[in-house]
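User: Let's play a game. I give you a shape written as tokens, and you guess the letters that built it. Ready? Here's round one.
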């Protein structure tokens, strides 16, 4: 049994989608990041960086894993699925996972913060992060021009990137002018495991104003 400590965010969804795709038995535990649960000692013992998600594999000596790229690679290697076994294919998948971890996630995360949550609206800052996120979307669109998925077969690279692309509107960004990205996005959105994964642990029953206020409170910690 795997225990997943998560919250309904793009990073949280990546882990739950992967677990759903792989059919691994797991228990999801909600971490209320707006209340600061991720800073409590019991969570920091699993992830000293105090971020969700984190995971404990009870079948592997209560082995704790944090950082989303590491979680996805661990699950792929544990099952022998969602990542090729050959060196070249494995490297390509990891490259596109790192593309998301180092580029798309941080840039779109900042776009979310300044467009949606930050109380003071600073147009130049909002444009800076939205434009960089859009540039990264264009990179994905070009990559998908001649292939169904990012690295041949469906993989953790698709899971990692889709979990952020699916929330493009929340950052105030359109993808309507990127047909390859739109096609891929819609295709993944119809996957049963993706549908289940984004429902884990549950949908927060909060309106946009409440979410923004909670996020601003979180930013002040």
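Assistant: Ready! My guess for every position:
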């Amino acid at each position: 049994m795997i225990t997943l400590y998560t919250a309904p965010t793009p990073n949280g969804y990546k882990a739950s989608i992967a677990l759903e795709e792989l059919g691994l038995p797991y228990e999801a535990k909600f971490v209320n990041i707006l209340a600061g649960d991720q800073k409590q000692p019991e969570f920091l013992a699993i992830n000293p960086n105090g971020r969700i998600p984190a995971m404990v594999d009870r079948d592997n000596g209560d082995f704790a894993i944090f950082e989303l790229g590491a979680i996805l690679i661990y699950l792929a290697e544990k099952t022998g699925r969602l990542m090729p076994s050959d060196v070249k294919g494995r490297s390509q998948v990891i490259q596109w996972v790192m593309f998301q971890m180092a580029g798309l996630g941080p840039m779109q995360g900042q776009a979310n913060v300044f467009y949606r949550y930050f109380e003071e609206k600073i147009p130049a800052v909002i444009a800076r992060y939205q434009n960089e996120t859009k540039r990264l979307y264009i990179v994905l669109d070009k990559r998908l021009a001649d292939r169904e998925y990012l690295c041949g077969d469906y993989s953790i690279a698709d899971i990692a990137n889709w979990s952020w692309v699916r929330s493009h509107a929340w950052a105030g960004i359109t993808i309507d002018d990127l047909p390859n990205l739109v096609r891929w996005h819609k295709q993944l959105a119809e996957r049963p495991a993706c549908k289940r994964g984004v429902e884990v642990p549950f949908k927060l029953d909060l309106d946009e104003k409440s979410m923004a206020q909670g996020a601003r409170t979180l930013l002040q910690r």
